[in-house]
Design goal:
The protein is α/β, with parallel strands linked by helices. It is built from twelve helices and seven strands.
């Protein structure tokens, strides 16, 4: 796997908190069964998905999250029609239904998901756009396909950090995807995702990071008590308001981060190169943490091939 792919210092051992209040096993099993039933109901309707109203899709996504025992708090609404680039911070597998609960959209997903059982077919059938994380030469074509979808009036959902973070730390937004919004002349809708326990601080229990398996993460979620998912939808960034993708990415990131400061993340604090990993322009991926040596931070040899996507000086 390429060392240039975006990464995160967050790992299950360093970041995942031990949940003090744990649901009884029967309740956790009941929640897990509920999630599976809701997912299967959605999968069964995929052949007629294009005729299902957006409101029904949003309801199904909210129901999926609630079936896992999570309370949902949503504020703000997205533009209901027309091309729209949805961007959000990335913490958990739960982020996907939460974004779709804001507005159903075509997801930008890593190509490896195609081979996953159940999730692969569900993702492909939903009209997702796939990206090969190991082929940086394919990045311009990926951006072009996103722009085409936006011009056609679709909403496209992307996690510009390029990898999941624990929720107590977050990565900088990669810029490449914002070029698609500029090319298609569509607004960008920032979405802020947070997970908490009751009225307390950020919870890392829902985080899906590092070498954590999906099953482990799902079981941790359904076993926890008092989890709350917060979805904030601020005003969109208007089309044509920014001349280049660099400033557009910075503006969208500021909208997602807001004024709050996240709780301390031991893994991020221990790694002085965490910001440097997130500052590049390759996107998106998750891979083992590279050694923070100066060589990792130099301009790669292939940068000239991506000249068309580089921000103007």
């Amino acid at each position: 796997m390429s060392v240039w792919l975006p990464s995160t210092p967050c790992t299950p051992g360093a970041c995942i908190e031990r949940t003090r209040s744990v649901a009884a096993v029967p309740l956790a099993v009941l929640r897990l069964v509920g999630v599976v039933v809701v997912l299967l109901a959605g999968i069964s309707l995929m052949p007629v998905g294009r005729w299902i109203p957006a409101g029904a899709v949003r309801w199904w996504c909210r129901t999926t999250v609630r079936a896992a025992g999570i309370r949902l708090r949503m504020s703000g609404t997205a533009v209901p029609t027309g091309g729209l680039l949805l961007v959000a911070n990335h913490i958990s597998w739960l982020d996907i239904p939460l974004l779709a609960a804001v507005r159903p959209a075509r997801m930008l997903a890593k190509s490896e998901i195609r081979g996953w059982p159940v999730a692969g077919g569900l993702t492909a059938g939903s009209g997702a756009l796939f990206i090969d994380r190991d082929r940086l030469r394919a990045l311009p074509d990926t951006v072009a396909r996103i722009a085409d979808a936006l011009r056609a009036g679709s909403a496209v959902a992307v996690f510009p950090e390029g990898s999941t973070w624990c929720g107590r730390a977050q990565g900088h937004f990669r810029r490449a995807v914002f070029q698609a919004a500029l090319d298609a002349d569509v607004p960008v809708q920032p979405v802020r995702l947070r997970y908490r326990v009751g009225g307390g601080g950020a919870s890392t229990a829902p985080a899906f990071i590092g070498d954590d398996s999906l099953l482990t993460s799902v079981w941790r979620v359904v076993s926890a008590r008092g989890l709350v998912a917060e979805v904030e939808v601020p005003e969109p960034v208007p089309a044509g308001s920014h001349a280049d993708r660099r400033t557009l990415a910075v503006t969208a990131q500021a909208c997602v981060w807001g004024e709050d400061t996240v709780d301390a993340c031991p893994a991020a604090e221990a790694c002085p190169a965490a910001d440097a990993w997130s500052a590049g322009d390759a996107f998106p991926a998750a891979n083992p943490v590279p050694s923070p040596t100066p060589a990792r931070l130099r301009t790669p040899a292939w940068s000239g091939r991506l000249a068309r996507l580089r921000a103007p000086t």
